[in-house]
């Protein structure tokens, strides 16, 4: 290496040190998504589900069953009312069954048709649709919103955006209020609100749930689906090439390009895709479905609706973007052939297991005993010999009435020769209440050897053939 080369390298090194450092971002800058309005088959289904889910959510607390709210989770009294069903914390097994059914349903629906839940019934999707609808009423469609956001502030812009956010806040607050109404009767909650007497936890959860709705549906939107929702990340484990997804027929659509409706695409060596980018503009997560299956796709079908509209205008066959499977698109299968592959062993197994679990839970609820009993030995009173030459043990029975009418119960005991209840044998319990009942059980001194002996309490409902048996022990002193 010559002296001149060495000097040149030193100059370059000095220049590199003196140069300003360049900041290289490892993260892509977020660009706000402005979904375009779309109408069509899947759009109508999506709005039908929005209406149904919100009718259930907002309407259920107003339903009455007898003299109470039809669906109420009374945490203070530890009672869960679901129409004619009254559940106690001891019925936690039914919550477990509900979670199992939800998980199996998710597996089944995902294996059949991908992210149907995300695209049509997920609360994030539903409230985003509602908030977008409000935004369009105040600010117009996509092009108008783009122009207004890119322009300077004006009175019109301030009023439109202020009105939009006010409507968002009203909807979000009503959502939080309705959520709390599942735990406090909605009419009581309304009176407390008008009188400004809401409890601290009612205020907290109303505003917490309301602002979560306002932030998620108003600002974060697709970011929740793309970065916060775990389902988007593990869905690939439940997908295969026979899962129905929103897919672009690349063989038919490529090469894409603009053209006149009067031109023959074959003569121009073009596919059916006119490269209008409308499928990107209507996507709520801002992806291009023509790039293939992506985890950001929520399967709403908006791109299929708008693409069919374009195909109609061009005079081409519909279905360039459609619900289909990867195998069906590659093999150009018919709808019947595709359906046979969708109903594959994996799907049938999920459906069979789900059916068994639902049937088992239904039978369990139908045969459920309408009352419960807990037996606790009275630790303050040990086994003792009382007058008449008998041994006495004292117990405390908690009798829980799971019906909404007063019930009477008869208490008896079995397990040892001569054992009997020596206290009140018939007790009454008010509707959906529990009662602790002290019970004295006596046994002749010669009735059993010293030690612990198993016995069984039998509690019989006098108004129905239901009965409960609970085990305990009888102590005989030495």
Can you describe this structure?
The chain has 478 residues and is of the alpha+beta class. It folds into three domains: 193 residues, no CATH class; 113 residues, no CATH class; 106 residues, Sandwich (Immunoglobulin-like). A hairpin with a 3-residue loop joins strand 9 and strand 10. The longest helix is centred in the middle third of the chain and has 26 residues. The protein is elongated and about 110 Å long. It starts with a helix and ends with a strand.
Our measurement of the CA-to-CA distance between the termini, rounded to an integer number of angstroms, reads 107 Å
Structural class: alpha+beta
What general outline do the C-alpha atoms trace? elongated
Number of strands: 16
Unreliable sequence segments: none
Number of domains: 3
In percent, how much strand structure appears in the residues?
A: 15-25%
Largest sheet: 5 strands, antiparallel
From the alpha-carbon coordinates, what is the Rg to the nearest angstrom? 34 Å
What level of helicity do the residues show? 40-55%
Report the total helices.
17
- Average pLDDT: 88
Describe the structure concisely for a colleague:
The chain has helices at residues 3-18, 41-59, 92-113, 116-121, 123-139, 142-150, 155-180, 186-194, 200-220, 222-228, 231-234, 250-253, 278-281, 302-314, 326-331, 335-342, 345-366, and strands spanning 64-65, 68-69, 71-74, 79-82, 85-87, 245-248, 321-324, 371-377, 384-386, 390-401, 407-414, 420-421, 426-429, 434-444, 451-461, 467-476. With 478 residues, the protein is α+β, with helices and mostly antiparallel strands.
């Amino acid at each position: 290496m010559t002296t001149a080369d060495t000097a040149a390298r030193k100059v370059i090194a000095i220049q590199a040190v003196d140069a300003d450092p360049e900041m290289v971002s490892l993260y892509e800058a977020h660009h706000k998504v402005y979904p375009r309005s779309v109408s069509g088959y899947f759009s109508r289904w999506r709005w039908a589900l929005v209406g149904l889910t919100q009718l259930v959510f907002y309407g259920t607390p107003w339903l009455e069953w007898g003299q109470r709210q039809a669906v109420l989770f009374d945490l203070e009294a530890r009672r869960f009312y679901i129409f004619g069903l009254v559940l106690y914390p001891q019925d936690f097994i039914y919550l477990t069954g509900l979670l199992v059914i939800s998980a199996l349903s998710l597996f089944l629906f995902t294996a059949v048709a991908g992210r149907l839940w995300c695209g049509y019934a997920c609360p994030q999707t539903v409230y985003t649709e509602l908030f977008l609808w409000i935004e369009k009423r105040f600010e117009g469609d996509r092009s108008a919103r783009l122009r207004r956001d890119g322009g300077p502030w004006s009175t019109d812009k301030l009023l439109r955006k202020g009105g939009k956010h006010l409507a968002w806040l009203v909807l979000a607050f009503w959502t939080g209020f309705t959520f709390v109404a599942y735990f406090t009767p909605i009419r009581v909650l309304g009176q407390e609100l008008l009188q400004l007497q809401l409890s601290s936890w009612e205020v907290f959860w109303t505003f917490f749930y309301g602002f979560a709705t306002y932030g998620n549906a108003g600002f974060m939107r697709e970011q929740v689906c793309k970065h916060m929702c775990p389902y988007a990340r593990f869905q690939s484990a439940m997908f295969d090439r026979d899962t129905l997804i929103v897919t672009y027929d690349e063989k038919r659509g490529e090469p894409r390009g603009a053209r006149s409706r009067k031109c023959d695409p074959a003569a121009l060596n073009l596919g059916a895709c006119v490269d209008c980018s409308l499928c990107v503009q209507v996507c709520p997560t801002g992806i291009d479905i023509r790039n293939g299956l992506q985890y950001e796709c929520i399967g709403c079908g908006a791109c299929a609706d708008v693409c069919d509209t374009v195909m109609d205008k061009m005079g081409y066959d519909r279905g360039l973007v459609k619900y289909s499977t990867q195998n069906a698109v590659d093999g150009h299968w018919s709808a019947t052939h595709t359906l046979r592959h969708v109903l594959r062993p994996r799907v049938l197994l999920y459906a069979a297991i789900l059916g068994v679990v639902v049937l088992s839970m239904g039978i369990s609820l139908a045969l459920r005993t309408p009352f419960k009993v807990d037996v606790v030995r009275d630790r303050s009173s040990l086994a003792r010999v009382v007058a008449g030459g008998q041994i006495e043990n004292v117990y405390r029975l908690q009798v829980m009435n799971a019906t909404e009418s007063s019930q009477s119960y008869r208490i008896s005991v079995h397990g040892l020769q001569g054992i009997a209840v020596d206290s009140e044998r018939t007790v009454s319990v008010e509707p959906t209440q529990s009662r602790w009942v002290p019970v004295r059980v006596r046994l002749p001194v010669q009735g059993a050897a010293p030690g612990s002996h198993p016995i069984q309490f039998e509690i019989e409902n006098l108004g129905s053939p239901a009965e409960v048996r609970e085990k305990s022990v009888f102590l005989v002193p030495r």
